[in-house]
Design goal:
Length: 339
């Protein structure tokens, strides 16, 4: 059909693999013997393919083709294309190797097909087409976001389980202490904090029993020991409205007997049984450092529990990261001062 006037859409057969496609006439060469077509269909390809005025991408390869027919409508051309489809299967019984052929010529005789010189003919790569579905892309993106969130939650859960396991094992390995007080831990509100402070101040023996009880918790570091003890002493909802000092117009925890209870419990955990401590642990057990660890734990309460989960989700959706409190020795020293 190279000498005929073609309509807007052409039904072409690719010589390389004898596949049939409908393409805009603008994709054909001037002699209508070649067609520019992608090896892999890009996103939105169908929309481009159905546009009679669309031009081919400069990066697409040019293929040798035979124009079968044409039409002014893509749908009519597509219907005509189906009539030109033919099976690509060739029965092996129809293929005969010529008896007089040699390995150097490699000629193959196929019934109904002219003889081909397999050695000299260059084999062109067959264009591979993949139908793109935007819905599938959306589902994949949503699934990947779900994976990221799930992994983050798993890491948080693993840390909580690790802390809980450590506390339980240490509690089981230590003989239970008899406690004569009626204190119910953890403390849930300001009124209960005041009541506990009064009980601890009224009887020093009760205070010492509570210290011995909480000293079983401990941790792999002084910071973790402080955090584990505070978790057992203060309920999360109450920690949200507590600070180490009252400078932020919130209830102050520093200076109370409960605060002293936490520090003494951590010290007793490390100094019991005559343990030899490293210089770093000794430095972390001084009063100012323990105060800074407690202040940091109280301030970071907004990043724990349901509030922390909502904060992380909001930060993720906004493409930002949740602000993390400074860590390390210098940060520890400044935490109490900033509270």
């Amino acid at each position: 059909m190279s000498n005929k006037i073609l309509k807007q859409f052409c039904v072409v057969e690719f010589i390389a693999d004898q596949t049939i496609e409908v393409v805009p006439k603008t994709w054909l060469s001037e002699d209508n013997k070649k067609c520019t077509f992608p090896s892999n269909r890009p996103r939105g390809f169908k929309k481009i393919q159905e546009d009679p005025d669309s031009g081919p991408d400069p990066l697409w390869k040019s293929w040798e083709i035979v124009v079968k027919t044409s039409s002014d409508s893509f749908d009519r051309a597509n219907t005509k294309a189906k009539k030109h489809l033919k099976p690509s299967y060739v029965d092996s019984s129809d293929i005969e190797i010529g008896a007089g052929s040699s390995q150097s010529t490699g000629q193959v005789n196929v019934e109904g097909i002219e003889e081909i010189n397999a050695t000299n003919q260059a084999i062109e790569p067959i264009p591979i087409t993949i139908n793109y579905d935007e819905r599938l892309s959306t589902l994949i993106e949503e699934f990947r976001a779900f994976q990221v969130t799930s992994l983050q939650n798993q890491l948080i859960l693993q840390e909580d389980i690790k802390d809980l396991k450590t506390i339980i094992l240490r509690s089981l390995s230590t003989s239970s202490q008899l406690r004569s007080s009626n204190i119910v831990w953890p403390i849930k509100n300001q009124e209960q904090l005041q009541e506990v402070n009064e009980i601890l101040s009224a009887d020093n023996a009760v205070f010492n029993l509570e210290v011995a009880f909480f000293s079983r918790l401990g941790g792999d570091s002084v910071t973790l020991a402080v955090n584990n003890t505070l978790k057992a002493v203060i309920k999360h909802e109450f920690a949200l409205i507590l600070r180490f000092t009252d400078s932020s117009n919130k209830a102050a925890f520093g200076g109370t007997l409960c605060c002293k209870l936490v520090k003494d419990s951590v010290r007793q955990f490390y100094y019991k049984d005559g343990n030899v401590l490293s210089e770093k642990i000794k430095l972390d057990l001084v009063e100012s450092r323990l105060d800074s660890f407690i202040a940091k734990w109280l301030r970071d309460s907004v990043n724990r529990g349901e509030e922390g989960k909502q904060k992380r989700t909001k930060a993720k959706n906004a493409g930002t990261e949740v602000n993390q409190a400074r860590t390390g020795a210098e940060a520890a020293e400044s935490n109490a001062e900033s509270d």
